[in-house]
């Protein structure tokens, strides 16, 4: 299920509110709007990114950006519980019995791992295949992050380009005081737009995408180690304790408490 990241949404919203509030305290907002500055900073930096990356990468930039605002990652505790249940089933009914559970698994890596188990592939080969999948995923994530990091680096540079353009325009009309103001406005506002674009939007989004990638890599590692443990016939209890090492202590404690409650209910029912 898709889960919205309120921290990203609130952070961007409140960041803009703080900046706008600071602008309003000293002057009219209209002073901070200049269309040529927007074209130079936003448009120029974007098309520089277009030059740097290929069409497919740039086309998917909005899809990549959405991952900073929402996530569909399955909680680690749920993955560990599923792997433990599959390990119990494999010990009781054999590895081939896991084929019945493949349709209920939504994660492609998890599903592929189960298929490899059912196909009786040896653990080393399974590890090699799944690690290659994880490495390819990490590389795709890195490409998405690099677009926003590049944009963050280019935006202030185009702000400086706009500043130079504004200064040139201003110096070219030193004999006409009425044109000095607009030239200085372009000169300063492009730098302002570039700084806001880089530091309030692009760099934070790149950072959140890196965090999302780390979270997903951790989950994929849990799946990988769980699949190998099931194939190797590891005791389900030991498997579960081993995989709990990948989650924070508070989540481990919550899982342990949940298991104790389930045991109490089972004893009470019997």
Enumerate the spans where pLDDT stays under 50 for 5 or more consecutive residues: none
In terms of DSSP E residues, the strand content is: under 5%
SS elements, strand count: 2
The largest beta-sheet arranges its strands as 1-2
Distance between the termini: 35 Å
> What global shape is seen?
elongated
How many separate helices?
10
Summing up helix and strand content along with how strands pair, one would put the structural category as mainly alpha
For the sheet with most strands, the description reads:
2 strands, antiparallel
Order of H and E elements: EHHHHEHHHHHH
**Mean pLDDT across residues:** 85
Radius of gyration: 27 Å
The helical percent reads over 70%
Count up the domains.
1
Question: How would you explain this protein's 3D organization?
Answer:
The protein is mainly α and 270 residues long. The chain has one domain (34-59, 86-263). Helix content is 78%, strand content 1%. The protein has 10 helices and 2 strands. The chain has helices at residues 6-26, 35-52, 55-59, 61-66, 76-93, 108-118, 123-171, 180-231, 236-244, 249-269, and strands spanning 3-4, 70-71. The protein has a two-stranded antiparallel ribbon. The two termini are 35 Å apart. The model has no long low-confidence stretch (mean pLDDT 85).
Secondary structure layout:
Layout lengths: L2 E2 L1 H21 L8 H18 L2 H5 L1 H6 L3 E2 L4 H18 L14 H11 L4 H49 L8 H52 L4 H9 L4 H21 L1
Antiparallel strand pairs: 1-2
Helix pairs in contact: 1-8, 2-7, 2-8, 5-8, 5-9, 6-7, 6-8, 7-8, 8-9
């Amino acid at each position: 299920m898709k889960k919205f990241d309120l921290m990203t949404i609130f952070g961007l919203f409140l960041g803009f509110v703080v900046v706008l509030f600071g602008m309003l305290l000293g002057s009219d907002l209209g002073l901070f709007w200049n269309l040529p500055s927007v074209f130079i900073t936003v448009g120029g930096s974007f098309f520089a990114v277009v030059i740097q990356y290929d069409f497919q990468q740039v086309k998917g930039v909005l899809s990549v950006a959405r991952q900073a605002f929402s996530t569909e990652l399955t909680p680690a505790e749920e993955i560990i519980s599923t792997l433990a249940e599959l390990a119990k089933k494999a010990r009781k009914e054999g590895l081939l019995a896991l084929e019945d559970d493949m349709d209920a698994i939504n994660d492609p890596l998890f599903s592929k791992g189960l298929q490899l188990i059912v196909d009786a592939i040896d653990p080393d080969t399974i590890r090699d295949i799944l690690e290659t999948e994880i490495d390819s995923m990490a590389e795709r994530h890195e490409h998405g992050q690099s677009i926003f990091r590049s944009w963050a680096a280019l935006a202030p540079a185009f702000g400086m380009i706009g500043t130079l353009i504004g200064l040139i325009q201003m110096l070219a009309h030193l004999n006409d005081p009425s044109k000095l103001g607009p030239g200085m406005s372009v000169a300063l506002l492009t730098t302002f737009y570039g700084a806001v674009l880089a530091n309030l939007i692009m760099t934070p989004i790149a950072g959140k995408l890196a965090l999302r990638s780390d979270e997903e890599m951790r989950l994929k590692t849990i799946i990988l180690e769980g699949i190998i443990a099931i194939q190797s016939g590891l005791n389900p209890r030991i498997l579960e304790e081993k995989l709990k090492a990948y989650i924070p202590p508070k989540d481990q404690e919550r899982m342990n408490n949940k298991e104790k409650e389930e045991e109490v209910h089972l004893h009470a029912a019997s």
